[in-house]
Design a protein that fits this description.
Elements lengths: L2 H14 L1 H4 L6 E6 L8 E6 L2 E6 L5 H12 L3 E6 L15 E5 L8 E6 L2 E6 L13 H14 L9 E4 L6 H8 L3 E6 L2 H13 L8 E4 L2 H10 L4 E6 L4 E4 L3 E4 H14 L1 E9 L8 H15 L3 E6 L19 E5 L1
Parallel strand pairs: 3-4, 8-9, 8-11, 9-10, 11-14
Antiparallel strand pairs: 1-2, 2-3, 4-5, 6-7, 12-13, 14-16, 15-16
Helix pairs in contact: 1-3, 4-5, 7-8, 8-9
Length: 331
C-alpha cells in the first residue's frame, strides 16, 4: 500500500471518530482499529493529549506517524511493535517506545483520563495494556446503570458487584461510583493496588470495598458454598494464566466451568458480563459454553444479549473483542 493510501485511510478513520472527539468528557478513544478501518495491524488509542500506537513489524509506520502529527497535534506518541514468536501462544508484549514528544517534559508515563464522569489512571509505558480497555466503555456504563437499578431492590444500596479478573478495577470503579458495593478479585497485587488508586482518583473510599488477591475460580467456588450472592458478575478472563492451585488456565477450555461457578454465586435475576480476548474463540462457541455452564449450575438463562461494540471499534468478530461477548441474565 502506498504512503498516500495509508494517509488517506488514517484520515478516514479519524473523521469517523470526530463525534466522539468532540465529547470533552471522553478523553480515551480508539482512533484506528486495525482491519475495521482497513489498516490491518495498526491500532491507535488516544489518551488525553497522548497517542499509543500498536503496529505489526511489517507495517509502514512513517505515513501513519506523519498523519497523526498533522491531524492530532499530540503532546507525545508512544509506539509498541508487536512481534509473535512462532512457538509463543501470545504476541510478545514490548514496552512502548517514545517516538515523538512536543517537549522534553511532554511524555509522562502516567496520567489520568476522563470517561463520562469517571477517571482512570493509565500508564503509557506498560509492556501490556496501559490499564484501561477502551472496547469495554459501553459495558462500564451498563454496569453503572445496573448498580443504580439494584439500589431499588437489594437489601444493601446499589446491590453487590463482583469483578473477577479485575485487572485495574475499572468495572468496580464504575459500579462503586453508582453506589454499589464491589468485590474485585485478581491474582496480581500490583494490579489491585492500581485499582485502589483508581478508586482514590474518583473520590471513592477503597477501604469500603473488597479487594481480593487470588484465583477467580476458587473465589467463586467458595462464595457459592458460603451462599454469597452477587447482583452483577463481571467475567472477562485473560486468554492464558497460571496459578499454583489450578495450573494453566486456558479461556476456551475453562469458560463453561467459570460460568457454572459464577451462576452458582449469582443472585436471582443477576446480570453477568461474559467476554474474552481470544480471536479463535468465536461468539457461537462462547454461547455454547455459557449454556453448558448454566445447565451444570441448575440455572436458566433468561436472556442472552450480544455486545454492541462502541463506535470506535468497527470490524469483524474474529478481529474485534468488542464484538464477541454477551450480557447474560439468569432466572
Amino acid at each position: 500500500m502506498s504512503a498516500a493510501a495509508i494517509e488517506a485511510l488514517v484520515d478516514a478513520a479519524l473523521a469517523r471518530r470526530e463525534p466522539l472527539q468532540r465529547n470533552g468528557d471522553l478523553e480515551a478513544v480508539r482512533l484506528v482499529n486495525g482491519s475495521g478501518d482497513r489498516l490491518a495491524g495498526v491500532h491507535v488509542d488516544r489518551f488525553g493529549p497522548f497517542l499509543l500506537v500498536q503496529v505489526e513489524p511489517e507495517v509502514a509506520f512513517g505515513p501513519i506517524l506523519k498523519r497523526l502529527l498533522e491531524r492530532c497535534a499530540p503532546h507525545a506518541i508512544f509506539r509498541r511493535v508487536r512481534r509473535r514468536d512462532a512457538s509463543a501462544r501470545r504476541p510478545e508484549e514490548l514496552e512502548p517506545e517514545l517516538v515523538f514528544a512536543h517537549t522534553t517534559t511532554a511524555a509522562p508515563g502516567e496520567l489520568l483520563v476522563r470517561e463520562r464522569g469517571l477517571a482512570f489512571l493509565v500508564r503509557l509505558r506498560e509492556s501490556g495494556s496501559p490499564g484501561l480497555f477502551l472496547d469495554q466503555r459501553e459495558n462500564r456504563a451498563r454496569v453503572a446503570a445496573l448498580a443504580r437499578e439494584a439500589a431499588g431492590r437489594a437489601a444493601m444500596p446499589g446491590g453487590c458487584v463482583l469483578n473477577t479478573f479485575a485487572y485495574t478495577c475499572s468495572f468496580s470503579v464504575a459500579a462503586a461510583k453508582a453506589g454499589a458495593r464491589t468485590v474485585s478479585v485478581d491474582l496480581s497485587a500490583r494490579y489491585l493496588e492500581w485499582g485502589r488508586a483508581n478508586f482514590t482518583a474518583n473520590g471513592l473510599d477503597a477501604a469500603a470495598h473488597e479487594f481480593v488477591r487470588g484465583d477467580a475460580l476458587t473465589f467463586l467456588s467458595i462464595a457459592a458454598k458460603r451462599e454469597r450472592r452477587f447482583d452483577v458478575v463481571i467475567l472477562d478472563p485473560p486468554t492464558f494464566a497460571t496459578t499454583k492451585g489450578r495450573g494453566v488456565f486456558q479461556v476456551e477450555r475453562a469458560y463453561a466451568t467459570l460460568f457454572e461457578l459464577a451462576a452458582r454465586a449469582a443472585a436471582p435475576a443477576a446480570h453477568l458480563l461474559c467476554s474474552h480476548n481470544l480471536r479463535t474463540f468465536p461468539r457461537r462457541s462462547l454461547e455454547s459454553k455459557l449454556r453448558a455452564g448454566a445447565r451444570a449450575a441448575g440455572r436458566r438463562i433468561a436472556s442472552l444479549t450480544p455486545f454492541s461494540p462502541p463506535p470506535d471499534f468497527p470490524g469483524r468478530e474474529a478481529e474485534n473483542p468488542a464484538a464477541r461477548g454477551f450480557w447474560v441474565v439468569l432466572d
